[in-house]
């Protein structure tokens, strides 16, 4: 029974492993996996979390500070009595307790501006995260399409090689029959050898492209990683029918490059306001309550029961020289146990409260110089914003022209393939009846293969350029499909 269970588990594990190894990734799966696992995106997501924490810190600046303290310590040797202030050799225990509240009343509006800046920085971190996602989507799409391109190019060469092998067999039979010269056979054999070399190169190109995509996805199993096999049709898009000015305007609204530059300019302006806040005085309020207690014995004075009164001279009568005396209580100093803990806390407590005003008068021009630096930073941010707009306009315009150009190139390549197919069929018919030699036939076949390769390249180049244009136009990452 145990053996049967072990065999069943082994079979199920083998089936699961085979299915895992044979998984074919679609573009959508690659994009979703990259968005979840890419390190750059994870770092951008952490920046968003940090910005959220900074915003909470900025909000907390509006709240008062409340602190409590408690201390308990022992002194041994010649120490000052905590309650009487006298020096004596003793071991004493003393404790202090306090609660304090501090509140910022005015600091040049710095708290308000810091909170506003924190919200701006939070939005900026979200823009950076969005840009990271767009960048990784483009990178994944480009690598994915590169695999498709290399794979289709490989299929073109393999298909042509199959035709070459058929021609090689037929030519060999005709040479042996004396119908064709030996040179025709050698020409086709050379063509076959060249195609085998290019097949190996194309297979390596497919493997390299697969490894490149796997590295972007952080997948280490390069051997089993592969993409889905299906026919990828040339997509249709209405974007190319729109005026380029409309595409550029939409890109300015949707793209993160300009939004990031705009947010950086707002941050620079807010930093300038924060720097100017240091010109203003600051006003703080405070309140504290404290108390103390001691475990040391308390010295008290009591009447001497054996001699309750004592006589003391107070003066002398000048005429007689008689000493005038008086009687006072005869007090003895004794130590008693300290009052109960809570009675001491009640008797020794106290409060303090007040306002603190700090007026900046002269600080070595540090505030003024900091304001100047912030003004320069505002100008730099404005220049970067203007450059970001110019770059975006240029990139969108270039992407628009590239998409239109590749669309026209793809259409032209399809026409060229059809023309070369007819030319090849004509050359093949002539070769079959001996009206042309093997070299001319091989050249016709090569031109057909070259036209097919260019058509494949134009097809996937157009698909990628169209996807880039869609992103510029504001198509969401989740909607990028093939």
From TrEMBL:
Main location: membrane
UniProt cross-references to InterPro entries, sorted A to Z: OMP_efflux, TolC-like
Signal is among the record's keywords: yes
Name listed for the protein in its UniProt record: TolC family protein
Keyword Secreted: no
Protein family: Belongs to the outer membrane factor (OMF) (TC 1.B.17) family.
Signal sequence, start to end: 1-20
Annotated keywords: Cell outer membrane, Membrane, Signal, Transmembrane, Transmembrane beta strand, Transport
Compartments reported by the entry: Cell outer membrane
